[in-house]
Amino acid sequence: MSTGAHGPASGRVFVLGSLNRDLLIPVPHPPAPGETVLGGDARMLFGGKGANQAVAAAVAGASTAMIGAVGDDEAGRAYRARLEAFGIGTSALRTVAGVPTGVAVVCLDRQGDNLIVVSPGANTRVGRPELDALEALGAGDVLLMPMEIDPEVAVAALRAGAARGARVVLNLAPFTPLPAEVLQLADPVIVNETEAQQLARSGLRAPSLLTTLGPRGARWGDLAVGAAPATVVDTTGAGDAFAGTLAAALALGAGPEEAMAAAARGAAAAVSRLGAQPEPDAPA
Hints:
Layout: E1 12-16, E2 20-26, E3 43-47, H1 49-59, E4 63-71, H2 74-85, E5 93-96, E6 102-108, E7 114-119, H3 128-133, E8 142-146, H4 151-163, E9 167-171, H5 180-183, E10 186-192, H6 193-202, E11 209-212, E12 218-220, E13 223-225, H7 238-251, H8 256-271
Parallel strand pairs: 1-4, 1-8, 2-6, 4-5, 8-9, 9-10, 10-11
Antiparallel strand pairs: 2-3, 6-7, 11-12, 12-13
Helix pairs in contact: 1-7, 7-8
């Protein structure tokens, strides 16, 4: 595990990633191929790995900025207002005409497990303007990035963040093969157990690898922490809460063990409520 010198803690987290509106449908069980399942009342919530992680970082106390794209629609306008209600900077959140804001359909079963289908919408347009926004990064900042954007853009962003002296935290979710030298820039690369297996099968290696283990906690190199106590209501966004809280703690100067413990508490809070994000006036 690397803990590298990344300059004085500035408390700033920049999140480059996706924003989606989540259509949440309670179901008795996930549908099998060809099966129609009658669900409960649908709810429209806020999600997308990038925005989920930005909200988690802001709730954890870090000065946070969201870099990404939404459509020129009501969903996009609502999302911008929501992020601003959390105190998240939106000057680098671009509105793209002619495409919708991303949408995810989430089927949530009685055990709190989920099945998710995503229509990326404006997230597929993340590109040069968002990379240009990374010029604001400096030593002591943290660039947090999940993989729901174009892999070429992700690679360019990781290189740009490292070149500007920021600490790069990569959430390799969903798993996407990236060049080996790019994975070496991230401290850490965050994966769940499935993504860790995919990474191993790909033959690639991340020198600083943090694996989340669900109810068994998480491991970062030789360091392990247990999961914080929680009553599971909805697992949607738990990994995002972990990543965002971890990035915030690192930006605020925490060491790896302290940051992981904070991240575990953030994930526990996430699974204890419905939806991937808290409300702006909800307790952390």
